[in-house]
């Protein structure tokens, strides 16, 4: 599913695999593996890089629906403007804001997934006390 979404968005933007790989800073072969679902568990960092250049978010790539777009003037009141001005004055860049935004999104997604897993475990009453320890010499 991740691979199909990335490929569709990439093609919609008119990017070749090489172009998107270069923009996102990942190898062409790795991106190809993701698109063909050979690699179906890319890291959140890789997904964030790819999502940024495809103008989407990690949640969409993972199968969640995109949030509706919000008009800036409906959300940014004077307090928001003050917070942003202060952050910029302290040296935050656009890239810093984007990275922070993706971090917040991925944390929210991870928390939601954790709640869903807790609910499933609670409902099924399955618990395991097995610990597997592997030590390489």
Explain this structure to me?
This is Helix-turn-helix domain-containing protein. Keywords: DNA-binding. GO terms for molecular function: DNA binding; DNA-binding transcription factor activity; protein dimerization activity. Pfam families: HTH_3. This protein is mainly alpha-helical and 137 residues long. The chain has eight helices and no strands. The termini are far apart. The protein has two domains: 65 residues, lambda repressor-like DNA-binding domains (434 Repressor (Amino-terminal Domain), Orthogonal Bundle); 55 residues. Helix content is 64%, strand content 0%. Helix 2 crosses helix 3 and helix 2 crosses helix 4.
Layout of secondary structure:
Elements: H1 2-12, H2 17-24, H3 28-35, H4 44-53, H5 58-61, H6 72-75, H7 78-89, H8 94-124
Condensed summary:
The chain is mainly alpha-helical. It folds into 2 domains: 1-65, 434 Repressor (Amino-terminal Domain); 70-124.
Query: Could you report the average pLDDT, rounded to the nearest whole number?
Result: 80
Number of helices: 8
* Structural Rg: 19 Å
**Termini Cα gap:** 39 Å
Q: Total strand count, please? A: 0
């Amino acid at each position: 599913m991740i691979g199909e979404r990335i490929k569709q968005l990439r093609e919609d933007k008119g990017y070749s695999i090489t172009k998107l790989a270069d923009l996102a800073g990942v190898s062409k072969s790795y991106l190809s593996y993701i698109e063909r679902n050979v690699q179906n568990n890319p890291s959140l960092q890789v997904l964030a890089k790819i999502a940024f250049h495809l103008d989407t978010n990690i949640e969409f790539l993972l199968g969640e629906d995109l949030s509706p777009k919000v008009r800036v003037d409906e959300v940014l009141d004077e307090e928001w403007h003050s917070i942003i001005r202060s952050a910029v004055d302290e040296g935050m860049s656009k890239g810093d804001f984007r990275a922070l935004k993706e971090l917040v999104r991925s944390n929210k997604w991870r928390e939601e997934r954790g709640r869903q897993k807790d609910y499933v475990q609670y409902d099924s009453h399955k618990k395991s006390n097995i610990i597997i320890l592997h030590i390489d010499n």
